[in-house]
Amino acid sequence: MNKKYSITILFLLILAVVFNIFSQDNKTELFSGKLKSIGGEWYINTGEDFFLLTLPPEEFLAENQIELKAKDKIEIQGIMGDEEIIVHKLILAEKEHVFRDSVGNPLWEDVAANEYYVVNPKKCIGCRLCVKPCPTDAITMVKGRAVIDADKCIACGICADGDGKNFKGCPTSAIDKVTE
Question: Is pLDDT above 60 for 1?
Answer without folding.
Answer: no
